[in-house]
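in:
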């Protein structure tokens, strides 16, 4: 008699979960105990071609993986604390799960029908899809999201979990309101946004946008431009095929190699740039600035720190440059073959604050406010774009080509 009720329950579940629009579903459902929980498990196979897969659930973690087979296989589990009794089964019914194929989209839906479902239940969706699936979308109200080996694009969102992605063939959009985003290889552009965690990206074959309200950002490699913003963490961009824009309200910024211009701003940390073919624009509210391998104009300003900068012989200084600090020294290395005109200024100087390996005319004069300033002027390689250097009561050193020791 018990077996007869179990068979009837499986048939009823299949009728509920499989819509008439998707007749090619092979599906089973069962209840079983797992420690102190009762689990309602639904497994199935979809033989119909599925170019797009979408998961929409009020709660639960979601994992989507690529397989070599042509069909979609899925396992959905909903858990409730309690034994295998009528009360626990009624609790499990507060989470309604369905799967349907409509208009070329395979849609999995998990709906919490009572206000307490998110508190009393947990769920996880495990979905294996063909590697050539063109588009995957996931939206969960509470849980982690993972996607691996997918050949197409992915749009992933969770209100309260981590997002993990690796070996994605297409573009990626990932957003979480309260977790970390960890991404391996992406075959196109990536947009990564989190309200309260860190962002890490191994590589992307396209433009990268990374934003977090309070965590660190690490971008190892991007073939195009990178834009990284954090409200209170550090930013590291190791390699970018275009421009780099990095901003943080309270951390440090480090950029390795950038084929374009680097724009960096921090309210309270250091800025380090190893290579920028398009020049640099950077500003720190309270930290030092270190620039090497720069091939374009420089604008570097800090309120409380030293500045060290190195220009390459291949630099293209089509515009004027400016290095300015209010509390610190400035050291600049300029190649002998680079046409540039130096104008160095030290405020409140008593003399002897400007040192140069190039011949400069150094003199002192009084400004309109009555302050004495020390000024050093002169051309290098016949002169060219203006290089303005200024410090308040610090030292200015101008060197011939050699690596600056940081």
């Amino acid at each position: 008699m018990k077996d007869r009720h179990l068979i009837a329950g499986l048939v009823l579940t299949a009728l509920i979960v499989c819509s008439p629009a998707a007749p090619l579903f092979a599906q089973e459902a069962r209840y079983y105990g797992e420690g102190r929980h009762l689990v309602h498990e639904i497994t199935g196979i979809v033989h119909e071609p599925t170019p797009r897969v979408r998961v929409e659930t009020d709660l639960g973690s979601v994992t989507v993986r690529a397989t070599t087979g042509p069909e979609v296989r899925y396992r959905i589990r909903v858990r409730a604390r309690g034994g295998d009794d009528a009360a626990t089964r009624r609790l499990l019914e507060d989470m309604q799960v369905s799967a349907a194929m409509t208009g070329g989209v395979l849609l999995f839906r998990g709906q919490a029908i009572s206000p307490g479902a998110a508190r009393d239940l947990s769920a996880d969706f495990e979905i294996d899809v063909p590697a050539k699936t063109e588009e995957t979308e996931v939206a969960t109200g509470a849980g982690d999201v993972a996607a691996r080996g997918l050949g197409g694009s992915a749009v992933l969102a969770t209100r309260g979990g981590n997002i993990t992605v690796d070996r994605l063939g297409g573009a990626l959009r990932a957003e979480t309101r309260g977790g970390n985003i960890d991404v391996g290889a992406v075959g196109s552009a990536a947009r990564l946004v989190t309200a309260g965690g860190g962002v890490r990206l191994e590589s992307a074959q396209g433009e990268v946008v990374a934003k977090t309200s309070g965590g660190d950002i690490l971008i190892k490699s991007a073939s195009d431009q990178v834009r990284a913003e954090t409200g209170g963490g550090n930013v590291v961009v190791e390699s970018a095929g275009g421009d780099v824009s990095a901003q943080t309200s309270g951390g440090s910024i480090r950029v390795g190699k950038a084929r374009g211009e680097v724009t960096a701003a921090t309210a309270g940390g250091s800025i380090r740039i190893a290579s920028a073919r398009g020049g640099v624009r950077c500003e720190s509210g309270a930290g030092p600035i270190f620039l090497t391998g720069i091939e374009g104009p420089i604008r570097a300003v800090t309120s409380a720190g030293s500045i060290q900068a190195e220009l390459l012989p291949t630099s293209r200084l089509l515009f004027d440059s400016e290095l300015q600090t209010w509390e610190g020294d400035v050291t600049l290395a300029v190649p002998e073959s680079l046409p540039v005109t130096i104008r160095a200024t030290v405020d409140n100087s008593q003399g002897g604050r400007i040192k140069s390996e190039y011949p400069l005319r150094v003199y002192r004069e009084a400004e309109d406010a009555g302050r004495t300033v020390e000024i050093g002027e002169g051309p290098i390689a016949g002169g060219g774009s203006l290089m303005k250097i200024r410090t308040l009561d610090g030292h200015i050193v101008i060197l011939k080509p050699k690596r600056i020791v940081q």
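note: The two ends are 81 Å apart (CA to CA).
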